[in-house]
Amino acid sequence: MEDEAERLGVIFCRPVMLLDPRVEAAEALRIEHLVTVLDQAVRRADDLEQELGDRYAAHPFHWVVSRVPGIGTVLGAYLLAEVGGIHRMG
Fold it and tell me: Measuring CA to CA, which residue among 76, 82, 83 is closest to residue 58?
């Protein structure tokens, strides 16, 4: 068992194959740009969720839909958008 652990330790502690420094710099720049785009997308999604929550809370029938167990902001807003109003549910 110790032999196997030692063998794996040697394998995983070896230095990895490095790329040309220019390629590594280009990859680092590419990854930095991807992270920036992802960060912007996350912030935009947060902004949209906040705006959706504000509009959902302002809907006249928010108080009815929000009391249904398991229905959160997004699903509640979706239901009100699809149905249009509680009077159409009957």
Answer: 76
CB 79 within 8 A of CB 65: yes
Asked whether the CA dihedral 26, 27, 29, 30 is positive or negative, the reply is positive
pLDDT tens digits along 8-48: 887 777 766 667 888 889 999 999 999 999 999 999 999 99
Taking alpha carbons only, the member of 55, 89, 47, 87 closest to residue 73 is 55
Give the C-alpha separation, 3 to 33, whole Å.
Answer: 43
Answer whether 61's CB lies under 8 Å from 80's CB: yes
DSSP per residue, 39-63: HHHHHHHHHHHHHHHHHHHHSTTHH
pTM: 0.59
